[in-house]
Amino acid sequence: MNKKYRLYQIDSFTKNKFTGNPAGVITNADGLTEEEMQKIARELNNSETAFILPSDNKDYDVAVRFFTPTKEVPICGHATIAAHYARAVENNLASSKVIQKTGAGILPVDIIKENNDYKIVMTQGKIEFGELIDGINKENLLTALNITEEDLLINHPVQIVSTGHSKVMIGINSKNKLNELKPNYDALTKLSNTISCNGYYIYTMEDNEILVHGRMFAPAIGINEDPVTGNANGPLGAYLVKHKLAKHDNAVLRFKAKQGEAIGRAGIIEVEVKIENEEPVEVKISGNAVIVFQTEITAE
């Protein structure tokens, strides 16, 4: 008999359906082949779909694999939020900690039950600061984004940063410019092959309740624009601490980031960066989620 798989469509970093970042989730993916997972992700056509698998090791509770429409990726912020939200609702979990195995390592996720709903806190992977994008690569990047040196934030170096899935950090000085961006996706894809980084996070900063507004483009992995990106805002937090670009108390930096406004899918991420000896040492992101629909599918 063919197994039925429980499929959810979940909007992350929001409590309002059809906003935030949509992710597919299959909560009982044991038995699916890698090819079947990729086909399901392609069919759903979300930026990522998460597949929850049982643990075969005492070191973790569940394994989670993440697929874009075109390839598997090591980890995904909004799909992690979606996966553990679906699992919490399905199992009526109390507030608890879940250890997940991902392509970015074995990492904890905190399930916080509040008002008969859930907030999910994701601890991200190892913080890594990559190369500065300069010279011809920077010229090609600015051309692809149709911006100039004068649009960039002063003292915000263009740099690759990762907490499990790397992004290029690009700070600009105008929210209007941010919302008007119309990148050359082919040029960004070509540059990704050169710099070995698929995602470009363009952000601006404001000194109010929402510190960061951003947009994230990753055409090289089939995501022209991702609405609300955990694996962009998390490493951005580490970057802001590293380059002393945000106020904090020398122990933790907390801020909110809003993304997706330009494409009508706004959502809010809360970012927390633990700091030791003026260096970022751990990043957590958190957010809400809402189930848009749930169904069952049978793999042929």
TrEMBL record:
One of its GO terms (cellular component) is cytoplasm. InterPro entries: Phenazine_PhzF-like. Belongs to the PhzF family. SUPFAM superfamilies: Diaminopimelate epimerase-like (SSF54506). This is PhzF family isomerase. It comes from Anaerocolumna sedimenticola. GO terms for molecular function: isomerase activity. The active site is at residue 48. Signal peptide: none annotated. The keyword Isomerase applies. Keywords: Isomerase. It comes from the Bacteria.
